[in-house]
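Here is one chain, start to finish.
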Amino acid sequence: MTADSRPTTQDSRLALEAALLDVQSTLAELLVAADEQYAAVVAHDHQRLEGVTRQQERLSTRLARAEARRLDVLGGSQLVDALGALPEPDAARAESLSRAIAEAVTDLKGRHARTAGLLDQSVQLAGQTLTFLQRLVTTPSPVYGARGRATPRTSILVDRSA
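Its structure:
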């Protein structure tokens, strides 16, 4: 490799900052999508939920590419070491981006946990509803008492309103 074809320190700094910006912007879009996902779950809008899920899959792929690019720019070194080697103004910008990325990842985990909790509640409620409906539509087992078979009892709440 000739001296002219080797990447300069300036190029490396710009490439690292560009990679971090790409990771940060993708995470920002994932945060918006997580909010949209939660809203779709709350609204019981399955079509919208499927669309948001597809969008999240595309963004996850984009995030993986951005992370791969960031790792490639680092060339096997740790981010902390690369940040320490940068001149002060560049290091401050890159550290700020790194902190923003860490915060976005934490926020994203929290939003996904919130949506997962809501989905769990929905599944439990649906299960309870099915159990209730099955009890309503199935014929109760005959009850035998001391005098033989007892007559089935009717529920005032269910039978009279039906």
